[in-house]
Amino acid sequence: MDLSKGMPAKVEIKTTVSQGGSTESFVFNEMGKVVYMNGSYYIRYQETYDEIEIPVTFKLDATGAVTLIRRGETTTRMRFEQGERYKTSYQTPQGVITMETVTHELQISYREQPFSGELQLEYDLYLGQEKLGEHKLQLLFTV
Q1: Is 83:98 a contact under the CB 8 Å cutoff?
Q2: Which domain holds residue 134?
Q3: Distances in Å between the alpha carbon of 66 and those of 45, 73, 101, 113, 137?
Q4: How many domains does the chain have?
Q5: What is the pTM of this model?
Q6: Are 31 and 44 a contacting pair, CB within 8 Å?
Q7: Distance (Å, rounded) from C-alpha 119 to C-alpha 140?
Q8: In the chain, is it the N or the C terminus that has fewer CB atoms within a 10 Å radius of its CB?
């Protein structure tokens, strides 16, 4: 299967955010596209939230690192790598906010027939020394 030009894919994202003693969960089921370029898989889709479509891209790097890019009213670019802490920018209409991610768990697996993949990600989000929340994300895609 040649994914260099991209193939349509079913994308399911489950996220759980715990902060300030409360927990919220979200599930998105969208049609998207999987592209293989320069040794990395790119999973792209439009996240629909309150009738607003937000372009989202996950880059699953051959090294095991993951980059998440969301472009909307706010633009986010986050990088995750097992056991690592990364600065991330959060572009808002009021300006750029710098935060940090600390990745506790990152697992990526693929299956051949039909081609599909799964990402399991757990990370904490910090603003300076203040922990904003604990995040769990599961991404499933099937071509």
Answers
A1: no
A2: 7-142
A3: 16, 22, 12, 23, 12
A4: 1
A5: 0.90
A6: no
A7: 7
A8: N
Q: Token digits for 139?
A: 């991404």
Q: What is the pLDDT along the chain (143 residues), one digit of tens a residue?
A: 678 889 999 999 999 999 988 999 999 899 999 999 999 999 999 987 778 888 999 999 988 999 999 987 788 899 999 999 999 888 888 888 899 999 999 999 999 888 999 999 999 999 989 999 999 999 999 99
Q: CB–CB of 66/13 below 8 Å? A: no
Q: Is residue 1 part of a domain?
A: no
Tokens 């300076």 appear where?
Answer: 128
Phi, psi at 142, each rounded to 5° = -140, 125
| DSSP character string of 126-143 | EETTEEEEEEEEEEEEE-
* 93: preceding bond cis by omega (within 30 degrees): no
Task: Answer for the pair 34, 6: CB distance below 8 angstroms, yes or no.
Answer: yes
Tokens at residue 25, please? 């969960």
Is residue 2 situated within a structural domain?
A: no
**CATH number for the domain harbouring residue 111:** 2.40.128.20
